[in-house]
């Protein structure tokens, strides 16, 4: 039996992130940056980038080795919040989500998203996220899980003189289950 608050994927276990996980996560992030340009900037391959979101974070482990993470930021951008029909402060934004190249296809990402979505549902908060155009697998994964695509816009995250990226917004409306109404 897994302990409480642990979700099992086919081969992955998800649990809350601990500070001790950060060195291993930074190593995984370096591999993900090399392979997938995530994060876009090499300078963001660091623990501080992983811990920037102010909400809870979880890691996926396989055979006791940390292979990925997902985090939540309180609040959402106004476009996503409008689509969700909520105040921006009431939503949560999914962030810092990745799985080690060697652990892909094992359900680790699915287990991480199961955990985040269950947390948001339990908190009565809807979810939003942004993915760049070249994050093809991630965008396919969100769509396959029923997230609603809101289209893309040209993001200038690195200033007017920096590179532009197509950023795709997705939202997932999540309301807590209604209590059963008696006859
Ligand atoms: C997105 C990512 C986390 C998926 O990790 P993963 O461990 O391979 O995912 P899973 O094994 O849980 O696969 C779940 C589903 O993702 C989708 N998927 C995964 N890789 C895919 C690919 N290359 N193309 C299309 N769909 C893909 C499939 O729907 C798959 O379901 P299936 O196994 O039933 O076909 C991983 O590719 C990654 O870390 N990418 C780089 C970082 C990134 O882009 N993060 C998102 C930022 S918004």
Automatic annotation (TrEMBL):
Bilayer-crossing regions: none
Presence of the UniProt keyword RNA-binding in the record: no
Listed GO MF terms: acyltransferase activity
Enzyme Commission number(s): 2.3.-.-
Alphabetized Pfam families for the sequence: Acetyltransf_1
Gene3D superfamilies referenced in this protein's UniProt entry, alphabetically: 3.40.630.30
Keywords: Acyltransferase, Transferase
InterPro entries with a match to the protein in the record: Acyl_CoA_acyltransferase, Bact_Acetyltransf, GNAT_dom
Residue ranges occupied by any N-acetyltransferase domain in the UniProt entry: 12-175
Protein's UniProt name: GNAT family N-acetyltransferase
Origin species: Mumia xiangluensis
């Amino acid at each position: 039996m897994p302990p409480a608050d642990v979700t099992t994927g086919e081969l992955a276990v998800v649990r809350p992130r601990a500070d001790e996980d950060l060195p291993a996560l930074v190593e995984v992030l370096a591999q993900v940056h090399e392979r997938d340009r995530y994060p876009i900037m090499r300078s963001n391959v660091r623990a501080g980038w992983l811990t920037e979101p102010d909400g809870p974070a979880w890691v996926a482990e396989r055979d006791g080795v940390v292979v990925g993470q997902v985090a939540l930021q309180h609040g959402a951008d106004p476009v996503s919040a409008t689509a969700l029909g909520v105040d921006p402060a009431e939503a949560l934004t999914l962030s810092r989500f990745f799985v080690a190249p060697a652990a892909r296809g094992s359900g680790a990402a699915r287990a991480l998203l199961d955990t985040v979505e269950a947390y948001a549902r339990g908190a009565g908060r809807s979810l939003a996220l942004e993915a760049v155009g070249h994050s093809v697998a991630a965008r396919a994964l969100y769509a396959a899980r029923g997230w609603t695509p809101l289209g893309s816009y040209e993001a200038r995250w690195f200033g007017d003189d920096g590179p532009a990226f197509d950023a795709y917004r997705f939202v997932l409306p999540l309301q807590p289950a209604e209590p059963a109404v008696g006859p």
